[in-house]
Amino acid sequence: MAVTEEVRAARDAKLDELHERLTGAVEMLVTGQDWARALAFAARFRSRSFNNMLLIWIQHEAAFGAGRVPEPMPSYVAGYRQWQQLGRQVEKGQSGYMIFAPVTGRFASSTPADASSWRRLDPREKPHPGEVVRSRMVGARPAYVWDVSQTAGDPIPEPPAPTLLEGEAPSGLWDGLAAQVAAAGFTLLRVPHEGMIHGANGMTGWGARQVAVRENIDPAAQVKTLAHELAHVLMHDPDDEDARQHRGIGEVEAESVALMIGAAHGMDTTGYTIPYVSTWAARVDGRDPVQVVQATGERVRKTALGILDGLDTVQIANGTPPGLIRETAAPERSSRASAPMPERQTVTEPVMVGRGL
Ligand SMILES: [Zn+2]
């Protein structure tokens, strides 16, 4: 059974509305401080795509402004049924925050190395014997999530949160970052003062494969610098063509990753220096600045997430309620085989830039 035209039209209208809201949210990121605030928020919701993070942020702010939620910041968001799984119920009158959920399709091939050999399977079609099957994102649908404050029921267990004094580095963070620098094949040096590294707090040298961080700043600033240099190491290899294309905004990316790493450890995020969004987002040739901002946000988020996942440190929650296991993708049949579209559904993350799905 196919989705009726009417249902499809309604879904497309909602997707258009979402894209519009998202563009509006991106365009509101004007100053470096706006960007920094968005990244601090992204650190709290790092399990969500950059786009969905922005959508959750603006819709929660609107709900707070309208007096529908008690706190300016959401803490955990999840889908309607996910809250039910956790013994909680969305309260009457609370409308959810609309975000993008991916729709995946199944593809089969008997010669997987040949990119042109993959064919898309119909929802119930079985692959031929010997064929490999992979799922891939083929589109998006609107889905809804609610903040915990819009639900009632069983208490949510609070995981331990990091606490820090001014200037203090989070426990284990330096060592964890240093291990990742070493794993990338770089030697880490601590230099006595900035005079040895051209007046900078830190430096990454590709020729010598060295990362240097100066020691005459407080431990928090040192660890922040190390996170910045690690981001360069992971993202900006000058021999990598993809990295070369991003070089113009390399400093923004490195500082942004460092900010997210710091924020995920409860560090103060006011000391990061990020220029006006328009000065770096306009620089990438031929691309709409809104798309550059989205792509940069997603690259930063993915890098920060990879670093954070490799650390053995106490981190703030990632926006998904404790105890919830999220699906990795919504199967195609949920949008094609049944009508109407389930709106209160498990929500997962598409990675999208602009309108390109
Ligand atoms: Zn740098």
TrEMBL record:
Signal sequence coordinates: none
GO molecular function annotation: single-stranded DNA binding
Residue span, IrrE N-terminal-like domain: 208-270
Top-rank taxon: Bacteria
UniProt domain N-terminal: residue ranges: 34-107
Region Disordered: start-end pairs: 111-130, 319-357
InterPro entries: ArdC_N, IrrE_HExxH
Pfam families (alphabetical): ArdcN (PF08401), Peptidase_M78 (PF06114)
Basic and acidic residues compositional bias, start-end: 117-130
Identification of the protein by name: Serine/arginine repetitive matrix protein 2
